[in-house]
Amino acid sequence: MSGVLRGATAIVGVGEAGIPVLSEGATPVDAMALAAVRAVADAGLSLKEVDGVFAAGLQLFMPTLSLSEYLGLTPRYSDSTQVGGGAFLAHLNHAQAALAAGLCDVALIAYGSTQRSGGAKFVTHSEPNPYERPYRVPGPVAAYAMIAARHMHRYGTTPEQLAEVAVAARAWAGLTPGATMREPLTVAEVLAARRVADPLGVRDCCLVTDGAGAVVLVRADRARDLARPPVHLLGVGEAVSHRSIAQMPDLTVTAATQSGARAFAMAGLAPAEVDVLQLYDAFTVNPILFLEDLGFCAKGEGGGFVAGGRIAPGGALPMNTNGGGLSYGHPGMYGIFTIIETVRQLRGEAGDRQVAGAQVGLAHAPGGFMSSQSTAIFGTAATL
């Protein structure tokens, strides 16, 4: 079946709204709806044509119902799979299957958050872990600090190498209109920044912003006749390994080894054929592990791999080309923005940050405490 799905669907519209902060009184549904309207318009379609709705969120209990009601949609297919920040890449997998089966004709994937403007009023529907809660583990940052510390202990990864990820992201953000943090950043400044959870400082951690994103998919035969150059979905892979950080089998290995292998197998491609990649960078250690687990370098070599500007503008492997969650924006769940930036790069619409000749793009995002992993590979028409 994977061979049948390769290139069978394409993203034809993308939209964003609300980064870094929404207008006063805006809700997550407001944000999500605005991004959705923009994505549908970008595709040259109308809202009444949307018959598949996919959504997830931290603040919304039934996001597909809320979004459909808000926009007056009556979808015949909906999916609110919630596996954390990478849920929207998993939605790509589900949407391509639904489109191929004729269960819907126009699939909308959307997300919205008021994490920044909500401030102390921010409420998540994520359930507490009864086994970890008594120890007052301070959320994701503590879990990812443990991952970083273990990688440093086992492989000799250094704070300077982690800092290279943040510095490269900031350099890309400087080329991106609308990025939240655009001023230059140095390795020394990352290392000198206030500690949050050792070995991670504040510049090793993602931003806290509002924001929303949406993408529209249709079958490939229809995509050829729409307003924008189609960006074809060549391969998708999903994997789940655990829920709580205490149950992660190995703090230095993620299930991206599985999701990536599945995506590359469906796409019929290898890491060396990827021109541009977006790796969810909630913390600087994340891309280092993903580069290893997706096969861009060997296990334990990720720290050295990102050094020397390899992933920065002008480097051999352009990564997180809008500035990522570290410098562009991070409204709680960043995964959908890895898709949107990949689409813009493959359309050739990225302006000063455009990667010349980009034909194949990869987006990857985790969920929870590295609990789920989702990988998607995209290509221009030339890759079919």
Radius of gyration: 19 Å
- Give the class from helix and strand content and strand pairing: alpha/beta
Widest β-sheet, arrangement of strands: 3-2-4-7-1-8-11-10-9
Strand count: 11
Strand proportion, as a percent range, falls in 15-25%
The helical percent reads 25-40%
Shape: globular
For the termini, the CA-CA separation is: 17 Å
Number of helices: 14
* Low-pLDDT residue intervals, each spanning 5 or more residues: none
Average of pLDDT: 95
SSE order, one letter for each helix or strand: HEHEHEHEHHHHEEEHEHEHHHHEE
> What can be said about the biggest beta sheet?
9 strands, mixed
Features:
384 residues, alpha/beta, 9-stranded mixed β-sheet, 14 helices
Summarize the structure in short:
The chain has 384 residues and is of the alpha/beta class. The protein is built from 14 helices and 11 strands. The chain has a 9-stranded mixed sheet, sandwiched between helices. It has a two-stranded antiparallel sheet with strand order 5-6.
